[in-house]
Amino acid sequence: MTAPQAHEQPMSTPPIRSGARLLVPALVFIALVVAAVASLGTPLITSVATTFHVSLDSAQWTLTIALLSGAVATPVLGRLGAGPHRRATILATLAIVVAGSALTVLPLPFAWLLVGRAAQGVGLGLTALMMGVARDHLPEERSAATIALISVVSIIGAGVGYPLAALLAEFGGLRTAYGLGLLVTAIAFVTAWRSMPAAPEGRSAHVNVAGALALAGGLLLVLFLAGERSLWSRHLAVAVSLAVAAVLLLCAWTVSELRTKTPLVDVRAVRHPAVAGANIAMLVGGSGMYLLLTLITRYAQTPHSAGYGFGLTTFVAGLVLIPFSVLGFVAGKLTPRVRERIDGPLLLAGSAAIVGGGFVLFATARSNLAELLAAMSVLGFGVGSFSAAMPGVILAVTPKSETSSAMSFNYVVRSVGYSLGSAIGGLVLAAGTATGRLFPNDGAYTTAALVGVAAMAITTMASLALARRRSSDHGSER
After folding, report:
1. In this structure, which topology does domain 265-478 adopt according to CATH?
2. How deeply is 351 buried, as exposed, middle or buried, from its count of CB atoms within 10 A (0-12, 13-18, 19+)?
3. Band (13; pLDDT cuts 50, 70, 90)
4. Which segments constitute the Major facilitator superfamily (MFS) profile domain (predicted)?
């Protein structure tokens, strides 16, 4: 990502291929597929543990490793996608995802399943590239709406993949569920091959290998420490040592980025108030959004014997995500129109407040399934609006050539936020679980919801501060 330029030199846009009329649906479909496939690990953890005779903690890695590889691959793909070989980068990445999907279907040992899931997770880095293609090859108004929709489907993809995977696993077994991933990723590859145009001329994108390795190591440690909550309670010295190593690696990455002429992310540009404010909002807001999603799905599956919960099966619990996906999609379609009247940071603030309302609903009313569905609907609408508004805030100060790189950094921040949200939820619920009990007490969910309210309040205030800053900047320009 480079610093915003007052007058960016126009670049020639290459002729779009014959499949260009399908470009928008192709971009949205690919973003949806990679998000849904990466989320396949969530409903299949129990089936993996049973099929491969491993512990639930080990089976959890089928989800964690996909998120880790996605976070690491995203900035590298973002830089490659800013260069002249964007089409080749997209196709090569999808080929890796297809190969990984094949490994999850073949009757191989558990280690190969993890390799396949890691390969599937690499596809998460394609979301920012889809935005770059849209911004380069579509008229401004249509590209803004398309980018917003891509951002939304990258979030609601989990709501699409979860119930489908759970249903297939219930009736056809684990391999059948993973077979769905192989089918849709193969279709996504063919779609990209037919529809992805070449990048505009005059682009260059050299990858800072040393910086990429330092960032990868730092992110791996941060996300690992966020996901392995037991490490902090059982091996505190090891956890602290790894945390120090993560800080040192990220500091080394920052120094490397400042010195190189070809940074993965222009750290100086990240300090721009609009970009910094948006990323802070994404980090805190993302942790809150994922926290509520985790709380609701876990609460719905808790058996009645715990004194609360609904004892839903994995498949039925997946259906609870449908309101989340539907309302998120609706919000994503409405947001570009609303943004014509309301500034982007104000939309972020309003969206964060809506998600905060979802937390309040969950904290005060969860005695029946209808109330749980209402909280999930509010969450979906808030997340959809937030996700659709976020790219516009960042891209307003970003040159076209750096779209992929800028949004890649934002998605790395989102991944870290999601991991923190999951970790915070786990810690709060664990603290509310009595010795010898399998499930936390009902009050622990209320405490976790109040933590979420605080997170969304911080996000709202950060977004309002950004809106005030932008308003004063526009006033000084006059």
Report:
1. Growth Hormone; Chain: A; (1.20.1250)
2. buried
3. very low
4. 20-471
CB contact burial 30-40 (16+ within 10 A = b; e otherwise)? bbbbbbbbbbb
C-alpha distance from residue 316 to each of 64, 311, 369 (Å): 23, 10, 11
pLDDT tens, position by position, 193-234: 999 988 777 666 667 777 778 888 888 888 778 767 677 778
Same fold, 19-202 and 265-478: yes
Structure tokens at 166: 């759970």
Q: How far apart are the first and last CA of the chain?
A: 28
> Each residue of 255-273: pLDDT tens digit?
888 887 777 776 776 777 7
- The CATH number of the domain covering residues in 19-202: 1.20.1250.20
Which segments of 305-343 does DSSP mark as H helices, in order? 314-319, 321-338
Q: What is the DSSP letter of 280?
A: H
Q: What's the CA gap between 375 and 224, in Å, rounded?
A: 30
* Cβ atoms of 298 and 350 closer than 8 Å: no
Q: What is the pLDDT of residues 300-309, one digit of tens each?
A: 888 888 889 8
- Exposure pattern of 318-334 as b/e (b: 16+ CB <10 Å)? bbbbbbbbbbbbbbbee
Please give the mean pLDDT across all residues of the chain: 83
pTM, 2 dp: 0.79
Calpha distance 159→44 (Å, rounded): 14
Other C-beta atoms closer than 10 Å to the C-beta of 262 total 14
Cβ atoms of 45 and 57 closer than 8 Å: no
User: In this structure, are residues 137 and 224 in contact, taking their beta carbons and an 8 Å threshold?
Assistant: no
Instruction: Go through the chain and tell me how many residues it has.
Output: 478
Q: What is the pLDDT of residues 156-189, one digit of tens each?
A: 776 777 777 878 887 888 888 899 899 999 999 9
Q: Do 362 and 412 meet the contact criterion of CB atoms below 8 Å apart? A: no
